[in-house]
């Protein structure tokens, strides 16, 4: 049984209305057990940061996003949110020795590597030269 680390863009796609969601991604996910999907604590930070930015402009939309965040992200992934521990921190440094990556991308990649999970992302090019990292692009046809 394979576990997967979902990148922030995959979680964001799940927020779309059912008709607007990417069909390739939905087909890929439908063949997997939801118990095998994990996220990084960095994904929580990225999503919450986005909600706070929306909140400063549009309170009604931010209220909807907060509800989605609490129910569909926090509650749905409870017990499956992987934190940055000493192993992830050290692996992040090793990744950045080869090339400096955006901080959040490096942490997410290191989390996938430490936990031996493929990283599921639309942004394959952002990660493709990280040695040993297995990537899955469920958005590709």
UniProtKB/TrEMBL annotation:
Alphabetically ordered keywords of this record: Hydrolase, Magnesium, Metal-binding, Nuclease, Toxin-antitoxin system
Instruction: Give cofactor(s), names only.
Output: Mg(2+)
Chain ranges of the PIN domain: 4-131
Q: Keyword Ion transport, does the record have it?
A: no
Q: From the UniProt record, which GO molecular function terms apply?
A: hydrolase activity; metal ion binding; nuclease activity
**UniProt entry tagged with the keyword Metal-binding:** yes
Record Pfam families: PIN
Instruction: Name the family.
Output: Belongs to the PINc/VapC protein family.
Task: From the Swiss-Prot or TrEMBL record, give the protein name.
Answer: Type II toxin-antitoxin system VapC family toxin
